[in-house]
Amino acid sequence: MFTIEFLKEEEIDVLLLKEIPISFAKSNLIMPINKDRFFLTAAVADDRGIFALIELAKAYGLKPKPLFTKPDVVNDAINKFYGQISSAEDVMDNISGEDFSAIATEFEKPQDILGLTEEAPIIRLLNALFLQAVKEKASDIHIEPYEKELDVRIRIDGILQKILSPPKIIQEALISRIKIMANLDIAEKRLPQDGRIRLLIGGKDIDVRVSIIPTTFGERAVLRLLNRSYGIMPLNALGLEGKEGKLFEELLFRTSGIILVTGPTGSGKTTTLYAALNKIYSEEKNIITVEDPVEYQLKGIGQIHVNPKIGLTFASGLRSILRQDPDIIMVGEIRDFETAEIAIQASLTGHLVLSTLHTNDAPSAITRLLDMGVEPFLVASSVIAILAQRLIRTLCSYCKEPYDPDESELKYFPSKPNILYKAKGCDKCRKSGYIGRTGIFELLIFDNKIRLFTTSRQDSKVIRDYAVSKGMKTLYIDGIEKAEKGITTLQEVLRVIQKDYAYL
Questions:
Q1: What would you report as the CA-atom Rg of the chain, rounded to the nearest whole angstrom?
Q2: Do residues 152 and 88 make contact, with C-beta atoms less than 8 angstroms apart?
Q3: So what's the pLDDT on residue 94?
Q4: Three-class SS of residue 345?
Q5: CA pair distance 197, 186, nearest whole angstrom
Q6: Residues in Cβ contact with 10 at an 8 Å cutoff, skipping those fewer than 6 apart
Q7: β-pair type (204-215, 218-227)
Q8: Which tens digit of pLDDT belongs to each residue from 438-494?
Q9: Interaxial angle between packed helices 171-181 and 121-135, expressed in degrees from 0 to 180 and rounded to the nearest 10
């Protein structure tokens, strides 16, 4: 007998896992490892696993070789290693054209689909799509209908990648299955619909936001995946470093004022706000948020989920929060004049308010608030800082390569570095050369001059030029500094930030 505390990836025979169903492994608490000429080896935690291993070994004509371990080790290994072997493409290969024809026929009558078993081809395909998206840490799944085809793409590290082109015949069946899971109206095909799905995939708690819209060639679905298992990122892991990181942390401990985080959709604004709240939370403070939706549960913090259908908007939720004696308020997004006005009044009456706006850079947030109709003197007296951000892909540490930059690249760098790094691609990073993302930031801190610019409605370029002269690091500069350090590539920075020489 052997005792083990964990399983190494290189020990696992992937082909063996494909032969033994995950349902068998989970029900018997057995993790198959490998087989040779004489033995079938598996990790087991109790008698169930031993008996299952004996039967499996008989089927292969081998002797059983159990490795004893804790039940948690077996469960974690099953979730991890079985999650690596299945893909939507594999499922497509195993499903015949007859299966698709039959399932499409069944979906012609919406009332019949609830009778489908978990083995129905369309269900297996959608489950495989979810599994592959989670395995590859994708943020979105796009199901896109065209005149003669259906495309499935997933967004990994901000980049869309096509993974599948299932037959056009299953289009309605696939969308209908998504609607069932999200509790949407399967008969309504003319109007956009939004919903949510809660999944457990390989032991990971996944929240899926579903958006379905009608297009010329059928309904189009986008599924946004949120892995709740990841938890809240610490503030120092976001990429906000050095002097700017320290200044931002100091601002979070102010007792009043507004701190805005700006950037386009998908730039990590909400992640930054959660990290900020996590940093400043204490039992001595009353922190309340109003969000759409609530993405992570924060211990000790009151969180309100916006529901416009019943009149619970950001503005009405914010009004109610003010009657809850808060110290710190987080508003998911300032979308209109009413929300902006209440947030400003809250900050002026002794509350710290954190919120987001959709603007390209920090100075533009001032212009955005003024365009909403907020009085310039209110913006100047309430806003204490604006943090603009983007997400850039980080180089794979296993395969990144140093190289000598040429003149065409050096013109982007004020410091003229001798060495830069490029993406090569390996098995660890799916041949992309990148793994994961980090943030690049631009922190605009209000001083008397910027308040004067605000009240006189100066152009955002005037504010930016002044802030840069006072030492503000722009998004562009932060990006190329990260390229110099080998965190990312110049090409990635230029993809995310279109170079503007005024930024220098």
A1: 27
A2: yes
A3: 60
A4: helix
A5: 15
A6: none
A7: antiparallel
A8: 999 999 999 999 999 999 999 999 999 999 999 999 999 999 999 999 999 999 999
A9: 70
